[in-house]
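Build the 3D complex.
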Amino acid sequence: NAGVTQTPKFQVLKTGQSMTLQCAQDMNHNSMYWYRQDPGMGLRLIYYSASEGTTDKGEVPNGYNVSRLNKREFSLRLESAAPSQTSVYFCASSEGWGSYEQYFGPGTRLTVT
Amino acid sequence: GNSVTQMEGPVTLSEEAFLTINCTYTATGYPSLFWYVQYPGEGLQLLLKATKADDKGSNKGFEATYRKETTSFHLEKGSVQVSDSAVYFCALVPYGGSQGNLIFGKGTKLSVKP
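Done.
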């Protein structure tokens, strides 16, 4: 069991470039999430998918899009990267929607210059 | 709205010292409460949780009690080790079915010196 995997681990982009962060889980979880972590801010929810086929905005969705490709995979896309999107991005999954433990991936450190 | 406030860090302790990290929350109803830990260079791991008032969560020597009357969920450990050095996050999931995402505090960095 790999749990939650994320690719890439590190990425440097120039302003205006686009990229997709990949996330996959092998725990047959229904719900998946994307968070960003900034110094002194804790983690903030970008988007989530409560179940396969659904996605919803979280606290900080501007500048991002997501795709729940299937039950296992949930990708995050930056269409036109900005320096304000420099952050560490974490994907997480949980068995269901509600008070379930969330399992986190190792993170992607993104720098936008 | 829903929010979590935890003590500012960093916290520096000597090995075998007693640890308390304060956490208070604002939420309607009875949220579920969590402590997550992030070791350097890694993602977050669930440390413990409590889902109703007066529940005590415990794991690896850490404990926290869900106090509804004081809206608190303070993390304690009687004797810390160097290996406990990490960032600790208090979090909640609001009561009810409309939200399932975690709302995090800003994190408290703990450093334990030998």
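The longest strand of chain B covers residues 86-93.
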